[in-house]
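Re: export button greyed out
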Amino acid sequence: MLSFNSSNIISKTKTIGRRMFLLNSFKAVVLLGILGRLAALQINEGSKYRSLADKNRFRETKISPPRGIIEDYFGNELASNNKIYQLHIVLDSTPNIDMLFFRLKNIINISDKKISYLKKQILKKKSWDTTIVSDNLTWAEFSRVNLFLHELSGLQPTVSIARHYIDDSSSHAIGYVSEISVNDLRIKKYLKNLNIEGVAIGKTGLESSLDEQMLGSPGYLRYEVNAYGKKVRQVATNNGLKGKTFRTTLDQSIQKLSTEALKNVSGAICVMDIYNGDIISMVSSPNFNPNSFVHGVSQKEWKEINENRDKPLLNKALSGLYPPGSTIKTLTAISALENDIVSPKLLVKCEGYIDLHGERFHCWKKEGHGVVGMRTALKKSCDVYFYEVSRRLGIDRLSTTAKKFGLGKKVLQNYSEEKEGVVPNTKWKKRELGKNWYIGETLHSGIGQGYFLTTPLQLSLMTAQIANGGFKIKPRILVDQNENVGNLQKYFNHKNSTPGNVMSTEDQIYNFNLQPLFRNQENINLVKDAMFAATNEIGGTSYKSRFKEKKFMFAGKTGSSQIKRFTAEQREAETKQQDIAYLERDHAWFVAFAPVEDPRYAISVLVEHGGSGSSAAAPIAKKIIKKVLERHEIRIAQINQQSGKNI
Amino acid sequence: MLYTRNSLHSPFAIRDKFFDLDFTLLFSILLLGIISVFAQYSSSGGQFDYHSKSHAIRFLVFFLFFLAVSFINIRFWNDYSLLIFILLIFLLVAVKFFGVQSQGSRRWINLLVFNLQPSELMKVGIILFLSNYYHKISSSDVNKFKYLFYLLIALFVPFILVLTQPDLGTAILILMSGIVITWLAGVRWKIFAYFSILFMVSAPVAISFLKPYQKSRILTFLNPDSDPLGAGYQIIQSKIAIGSGGLFGKGFLNGSQAYLNFLPEKHTDFIFTLYSEEFGFIGSALMIILYSLITFRITCIGNITRSIFGKLYCYGFATAFFIYVAVNMSMVLGLLPIVGAPLPILSYGGSSMLAMMFGLGIVMSCNVYKNNPIS
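Workaround output, generated via the alternate export path:
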């Protein structure tokens, strides 16, 4: 066996060796062939190919694709594209760059500083790259340049497209676009292949989060040039792919009204559909003109924006953090009822303050509210009542309820600038501040002061989830074409189509796959009723802002978040908010839902340093609510059309 | 225990084995890797971007992988070659169903961390399997019908699977690698002659099955000037780039053709064009010498290895490696149609690099364990 094996190996080895020799000879021939070809191309014909390469017969310029459009719920364009007139320079095709600029200076308005900057830019680049001389000319300037084009050799007048915002009302929700910065290139990987001169990318808001999808893919223009780099003929074009269009849940006309309503104050408004969480309006004031960023904001304008006390660039609706003030009392009440800490029948006597462990806690009303129950306490926003309730409740239970109703976390996923806020509890304080919790802080938290920090958007979500009977909703600002009608919507449709047919809570949850935030829905209804009283009954905190027509009636809760605690003297002197320095005045809050019968919308209004919620915020909310309800039918028609498509 | 002698279980094994490495081959590979990083850096426009960075990292990782493979006993690769081959077939079938589609073909499989191209690995897998196959059967059986029949299955299953991805270039390279082993093993001239005739007769039929873009590439190859802006664009631009490099080249980072983006796929198939434009005839000739040196060293290892498996594998891999280089260079020089074949190690592409380093690792293993007989 062994001998057979070894003879087998020997014969195999021989064959392999013989055949490998043939292969190697073949390899040598191929190798010589390749080397020969290389020599022929590079040495013999080298000069020919060199001149071919130098002449560079083909050039390519990239074309930036039209950016995707952002629409409101009804298809009105919130962010669209406009034709713009630009001037480009390619060094290769410019015989004398100094002469060109010298002549250009007489035709369009261009400063010497800009010219020397541009010259430096041009020399830094490859000679065949395009440099944009002027990126947004008026039609008059553009046509004048075209008239003198024969003496401006090297200049290429180009018609391009750029972002255009129709009005300022959605500037925070939509965001703005601007030139790519070095930092953008480092962070945003998708910009790698987008090497186009002058393309603007999203910087904030939806423009930033949807940037990749809205950019589209660039096209190109391939053309043949002669030895001097002059365009001879176009040989191929590819227009690229237009960016994706997005539809938002916003309503442009309400955006405009909200902006108008906040015109002279600093603040924010959020309006939400309580069935499906659609954000109908989200504005922050003061706003800015997003168009001024598209072609690079001027230094003067930038300075103005940056030094403004009211921070126009900040989207206060979701990045502004404020203590919720008395609006949190709705949750304090729900939490106490849900945990069986107090009965709705509990009566507390308010004498204007209570003392606890030697500290005095004041009610906003110096002379006190007398004996109050829960409904009256919410209606009149009695602090003493809620001091007592939160003392019994404890901060940890309150924080659990607050988190359940959407505080302390981001409401939307579309905004990197959105803030989470703070829902304090004992663990949080130990972790963040390293200190133990004091009972006094529970009392402050129970009326929405102290560590609590919320955004107007969070409070509108909270109100919406109370108003819809305590069911969880998922707020959204983008319309997803594939999404079906929400479960809550189906449930309410069913309920409205079969009046009188009362379904038990378990059935509601089971049949419609709802996510209840309550243990007993009666507790939610009780708070809703108290909010009704606060607006529509004499003595309520927002009674002055009520609507008498049933159609527009709403229910709301005021609030004011303290910036600075009143001193004893101020309290004694009954100092008015108007009398103290602007920056020390309270923020004014108002949250509401409407209409009171069969609620559909929730709203939150914040006025920075506005004083009291009833005088500063509620009247604004009143205006918005009316408009929202007037547009209800149109919106419903649109929703039905939308859901019809999805079936 | 079959592996007791010279096995890795001994704590001194690796240190002893270290000096059994072929350092000429090792340093040639290292040099090629370093050049490749510079070439990728240049192809990224002279910056360390995503491409060049990941190429450098891959080379580093796969070079370590190459060393690891070198120290695994050659018997292991012999024993498991069938299993590896079946696994690769399985992966190719998986690509058909779960593959990632890109630019009209389905070649990659998503392994979460990276996308693997099993067809690249098959280039080595088929050499490994056929070396083992002819190692096992005696020389008198090589030309028997039964064994030829198995061979045809082993050759055509991966070929068809890759061809229909579609990836004509890789499919042809896999088939050629397999044929080389078959030829080395001593299959009669006559049989090759029969198949050549069969091929020539069936070629017109086969061409009618090609995709339009594949047909146009062949036509373009025959006459590139017929459509200078369409399909002939790549060949013309590649020739201009190489030719304009001249004797000494335009210098590192100065290749204007490449910078103007005239070269499509300059990271991958056309990396030699870019290199040649920048370093000229002298640089290109040195590159060819470096590749030849690697091929030569692999052949030398084949000469001194005692086992038939080792010999077949080394000779086969040396030839296949040479073919990859020759096909790629001929392609960019306009001697062959553009079929999509990367240049080993120099081209960007993780799977191709992995396959080459794996193949070279087994060659090195042949050298380290050259005196181990394989039953």
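The longest strand of chain A covers residues 77-90. The button fix ships in the next patch.
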